[in-house]
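Record 1 of the preview.
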Amino acid sequence: MFKKSPGNTWKTLDRDLGRIVQLETATAFVARPLVGPGIALAFILLAGLAAAILLGQFPVNMIVVVAAIFGAYMAINIGANDVANNVGPAVGANALSMSGAIAIAVVAESAGALLAGGDVVSTIAKGIVDPEAMQDTQTFIWAMMAALISAALWVNLATWVGAPVSTTHSVVGGVMGAGVAAAGLSAVNWMTMSKIAASWVISPVLGGVVAAALLALIKARIIYREDKIAAARVWVPVLVGLMAGAFAAYLSVKGLKRIIKIDLGDALMIGVACAVLVWMITKPLIRRQSEGLDNRKKSLKLLFRLPLVVSAAMLSFAHGANDVANAVGPLAAIVHASEFGSFSAKVEIPIWVMVIGAFGISFGLFLFGPKLIRMVGSQITKLNPMRAFCVALSAAITVLFASGLGLPVSSTHIAVGGIFGVGFFREWHMNRRLQTARQARSPDTELQPEERTRRKLVRRSHFLTIIAAWVITVPAAAVMSAVIFLGLNAFL
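->
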């Protein structure tokens, strides 16, 4: 009988092992896209389990469990979509790596939600629907459940498309749609809705104008100066101090309301004091950091890198302190109504609900956030540390200004509007300089259409997609919520 030699046996074994390695590699490659959804699903189920343990008896317990599941789902979608606006510019400017940005945002968002998050939230999303219009507690619960589900689904769809949308507006649309389905058009406060609709225009325009003005200031006072380093030593501390003052004032009004109540006047005084203090501290640091740098634009980027990182962390903290409460508002309303058998215009947010919101945002950002972070940071327009700093500072100034005037602005729209403002300003500024140079050489020549297209520094496809998503967010969430409410009311 023929017997294989030891050499042939080893060759056969090597080939078999090679096939097994190839199979394992292919399996891992196929399974990789399922890791994120699997972890997200595990967190969602844990949130439901926590609700079942912490609250109530059957059947009330089941309502709370389902609400907690969809609340966790909503929080994950906020992390995947909304947080990208806070850290995206820093990543696009190469001031932060993707992993570093996610780590900072996770810590800052969670800290903002748990330490400075509002302990009382409007259950009707800023007074959009009259609570007295609801027939009974069961109708109210189904309305809030429909609002929660529709908002989460819409934000998930927007993330999949690649459009950063306002989660607060998604909740607003969900509450409005469920309110109309439950109590008719008269239940909606249309004056409040008109203000929210106006914010679709006010938020991005204000953010874009402020960001463009800041970039124009940096170009005029630093970049185009003969001695760029000397100019930076004067103006960078001023800009950093302005950023610190704006964040201090804003967080004094919005972020510390759980600890102490501060009115706008006192907050502005705190902001001025903080701005002066940070300016005094930053001035010698910038001087020391700028020693030995070449007198060129590339050197200036180093001076803006650290302030940009700090601004990304502060934006994330402010977002966690304010927007998370709005997102978990429907969940808090359902918990309150289920526990006490009644509903009111304002309820306290249980700590476990805020924990779901904070950790859900962290999981969503870690698992699904990079897609929107890349889009916001590098696919709308090209950013460097100076341009990204203008976007971050614009967001802080605009939100503070709007809060003082009582305007219902969206932090998402402001941040993305700031990116558009920087991009369109660069486009206009470059075209003006090149046109001036061209006319100086040959006054009668005009730019060809191909040349005009080449000079566009903002991607029009992303611009149109994002604007369209902003416009349809409230009506789309409202329609989905109305359909879901009617389904819940009919079958349960």
